[in-house]
Prior knowledge:
Helices cover 31% and strands 19% of the residues.
Amino acid sequence: xxxxxxxxxxxxxxxxxxxxxxxxxxxxxxxxxxxxxxxxxxxxxxxxxxxxxxxxxxxxxxxxxxxxxxxxxxxxxxxxxxxxxxxxxxxxxxxxxxxxxxxxxxxxxxxxxxxxxxxxxxxxxxxxxxxxxxxxxxxxxxxxxxxxxxxxxxxxxxxxxxxxxxxxxxxxxxxxxxxxxxxxxxxxxxxxxxxxxxxxxxxxxxxxxxxxxxxxxxxxxxxxxxxxxxxxxxxxxxxxxxxxxxxxxxxxxxxxxxxxxxxxxxxxxxxxxxxxxxxxxxxxxxxxxxxxxxxxxxxxxxxxxxxxxxxxxxxxxxxxxxxxxxxxxxxxxxxxxxxxxxxxxxxxxxxxxxxxxxxxxxxxxxxxxxxxxxxxxxxxxxxxxxxxxxxxxxxxxxxxxxxxxxxxxxxxxxxxxxxxxxxxxxxxxxxxxxxxxxxxxxxxxxxxxxxxxxxxxxxxxxxxxxxxxxxxxxxxxxxxxxxxxxxxxxxxxxxxxxxxxxxxxxxxxxxxxxxxxxxxxxxxxxxxxxxxxxx
Length: 535
């Protein structure tokens, strides 16, 4: 059996987890985060892509567990006022102006000036130009950590039923948003020490100064709303984009992890993700599908029915459809099975399908390898944005790790398909050479939640728009176009500065990157543990 996880190649480190669980959908994650925060003694450290101060962590029936404030920032403030020893650190991506209308305004003032002085909030502007900080991480007292695909922000809350209509999916006075699916992990044990170290480095790299998070001896850490994660060691893999100022070399562990996992597949690959637009992953899939002498492969993807916003449809949707259509053709030509699906529930009032938005980032290979985290299957998640993934790998088929991975995969697939009962779950658990055919039939019938993915772009939906479909977009890069262009403009004497500036400007105009210079100072890279301390 070909091993996937190789420290130094596709992961930063492999550490023991005393206990770990997989939290499916925001109701489970927010509830466990609330319970863990209530027990915090020394610190709560949070970093993410987006935060909203008034997101309620407990809703509906869960409000019976409330011990005070349930909204994020009021809760953190209340906890600090009740415990003079508690410190809270919140590190948020200093987002692109293109997202300004979707974000809570003046967060620096709201978090820092309306709360206890021990609640410290920073914007992190140290990502590469054209890139984003996308890691989602919470560490509490060095005793428990949460990481995965979920931020604590508007329009994320849902439970595993994904009802077509739900009054609890309502944030900040908005109308209720649609069904939303995501996956997070919760961990205890030595692995939490490395995650705390990662947060310390991110805080320092943002310009916040040196931070040393104390480790608190705790015997009261527990979590109840999770699926048990595989026992034993867990690998941590990262992405950081290269920056010139502050200087930081690229870290592409997640990229290598995904490619090695695909190459190792002997029976099936299961992916659920927000996007599929990575050229590297596409090429790895093609290579595996065309490999002579390898077994028949079942490839199953669960994706959103379409990207949320028009800019995302333009940025990733067009590439996604082209790549998936090509993979479908290659799989058919070489005797493999390839299925792409989305998930929907029927609205009893309108009679129409209401699709669940898939935001999770999960890959399972042969029920012996599992990775989940913040990384999308996009170019930018493999080379430019900051990302963090956890991975588990079985020693042999049928061992405790393999069985735990299978339970997680089956649980997720059953949720998307809307299946219950022993017989249905048994079919999913087998994952044999007929599974894609069985899922295709289930999706085509439309009697449950699974639907065939339409594999259409916004341009396919209108003949008038079809003629405007671009041949190529660079909105989903692996490298920082702006950083590299600037470097070339300053160092290539044979290329005039004016021409270089025009090229730089033209590339910037079609991008979605940030507009500001870096303000952070990058700490020196650590050679002792092999990590780049910039993230």
